[in-house]
């Protein structure tokens, strides 16, 4: 997924009045000429790290929310609340 994101980002950042790339494949060719295969993966480490932190934060928030609900409500009630939470987030 990352190489296509690199090309997409380059094309989005390209000038409208004086475009450097004529189409997607032209951008791929020029990018490869400039830096080889590695140029498609510049910044992948930072993006992966950011994604890992974001997902970890989401899991942590969910677990804390679940613990809070378990303490506050009886077992049957908290299951209904969790189901409602998933319904709101459209994860169900």
Classify the secondary structure makeup into a structural class.
mainly alpha
> What is the string of helix and strand elements?
HHHH
Number of helices: 4
Oligomer: single chain
What does this structure look like?
By secondary structure, this protein is mostly helical. It folds into 2 domains: 2-41, no CATH class; 50-89. Helices cover 74% and strands 0% of the residues. α1 crosses α2 and α3 runs antiparallel to α4 (75-89). The longest helix has 29 residues, at 44-72.
The gist of it:
With 92 residues, the chain is mainly α.
Topology overview:
Elements lengths: L1 H12 L10 H12 L8 H29 L2 H15 L3
Helix pairs in contact: 1-2, 3-4
């Amino acid at each position: 997924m990352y190489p296509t994101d690199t090309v997409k980002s380059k094309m989005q950042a390209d000038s409208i009045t004086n475009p450097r790339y004529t189409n997607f494949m032209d951008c791929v060719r020029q990018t490869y000429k400039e830096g080889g295969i590695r140029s498609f993966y510049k910044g992948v480490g930072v993006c992966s790290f950011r994604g890992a932190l974001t997902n970890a934060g989401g899991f942590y928030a969910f677990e804390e929310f679940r613990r809070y609900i378990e303490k506050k409500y009886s077992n049957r009630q908290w299951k209904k609340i969790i189901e409602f939470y998933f319904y709101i987030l459209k994860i169900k």
